[in-house]
From TrEMBL:
InterPro entries: NFD4_C, Nodulin-like. One of its GO terms (cellular component) is membrane. It is a multi-pass membrane protein. It holds the Pfam family Nodulin-like. Residues 1-25 form the signal peptide. Residues 7-252 form the Nodulin-like domain. It comes from Populus tomentosa. Its main location: membrane. This is Nodulin-like domain-containing protein. The chain crosses the membrane at residues 65-88, 100-130, 136-154, 166-185, 205-224, 236-257, 348-366, 415-434, 440-467, 479-498, 525-544.
Amino acid sequence: MAGQSRKWMILVATVWIQAFTGTNFDFSAYSSDLKSILGISQVQLNYLAVASDLGKVFGWSSGLALMYFPLWVVLFMAAFMGLFGYGLQWLVMRDIISLPYILVFLLCLLAGCSICWFNTVCFVLCIQNFPANRPLALSLTIAFNGVSAALYTLAGNAIDSSSNDIYLLLNAFIPLITSVVSLIPIIRQPSLDPLPPDGVRRDSLIFLILNFLAILTGIYLLLFGSSSSDGMRARLLLGGAIFLLIFPLCIPGIVYAREWFHRTIHSSFSLHGSGFILVDVDDLELHKELITRESSYHENGDETLYEIKRRKSSGEKEGCCDSMVKKDRLAMLGEEHPVSLLVSRLDFWLYYSAYVCGGTIGLVYSNNLGQIAQSLGQSANTTTLVTLYSSFSFFGRLLSAAPDYIRAKMYFARTAWLTIALVPTPIAFFLLAASGNAVALHISTALVGLSSGFIFAAAVSITSELFGPNSVGVNHNILITNIPIGSLVYGFLAAIVYDSHVSSSLNIITDSVVCMGRQCYFLTFVWWGCLSVLGLTSSFLLFLRTRHAYYQFEAKRISSMTPLY
């Protein structure tokens, strides 16, 4: 029981780490000031945003570090990388030191790398401590990475609402403080035995409660995250947010106490009346089922699977679209894909295209949010927009767990959910192109945050399902190479359009060139909208090519559970 209790302390610790280490999401809050102090163009500012995203390319280094150092050492290495990267940028912003542009670029790269190291530590902790409910643990912790900007906005308002460089100081020290607070649970990791069926069901109930608390936290930050610049009120609101982050520590204890009470006092009490089915032993997420797939695969035989597929499609007309959908598609979920096989599959490139034209565009939009608000005359609302994007990104990440909760009532392939999640992005960009008023800006920011948040959180599970759970570490790192590439290309094109309109709307109040008016980003929004339609199309084709594998897996799962009834 003590070991089971400590694993929940570790989960809450990973939630804290994720909540306070998404430091790249508040870049737009101070980017305009950074641009002014360095005296750089929009293109050069874009390169600094790219440098932060480029840290993901070196995410593999955290896995290498874990081969030689314990988890807590890697955690503090990440914290000190962030302290050094953001701390020196803060000194530059305060005119305490002066650094050339190339060194500021390298500091942004180092800070971005620290985020990947924090993420790796959290992923490993979830995988080690929640093998039966791994997707639920990952989706919950990844979701909290989306509220970082809202939390930092509250903290910034509580300390000094008039200074934007406070974000860099917070980015430097808060992750280090969080690492110190999380140290004891991580060091005292329990050795866990396999859970019995009732244990898996109990853990799933706890996850459900924690998700409700997470939704409450997101609503709180959305309503109050940037609503006050008054120092005392902001401190009270920050205290409320911290309470909501600490309160989940009580939930496992309450559930365990309730279970003990019912077992000892009301032994006949049963929860079987619920029609809401969560993850069960026979319904572990795909990586447990897929590890044993070879035995069932050999029992059925390769030819049998092909015969089933051909019988199902025998009555369908063969055409160009059918050929593209069926050619070399995945025969089953979870087949391990080495790198050479991965890059030769059309399914992977459709997935890559959907990600780079969906989630990555959303990230680039958040990086440019400061300049977008400034060009539309909404500079005073920049922190509100950052909080709005952060909060809806958080909700999107939480929604990525919905397929795992409602599969008993309604089942869709996870690639279908990905397609649905991409729909808001083109709507948002075309709305921005059509109207530059404050309402359109707020609605579009919320839609982009919701869409990109879902994609970021769902990507790990989709990669595991389509290309193998044992290869997910390597394959997912290959997938997210699209982030720095997309950040560079999309941001560079946006900066070119921005700078091309500067001459007609030059703002000479600041030391840097500032573009004002809808024309600064009009063409960018149109291009981003068209590219997101391309991503939506790629995702839909991926769904058509993979739905048979998902439905085959679900049918097998249901048939294996039938004798239990």
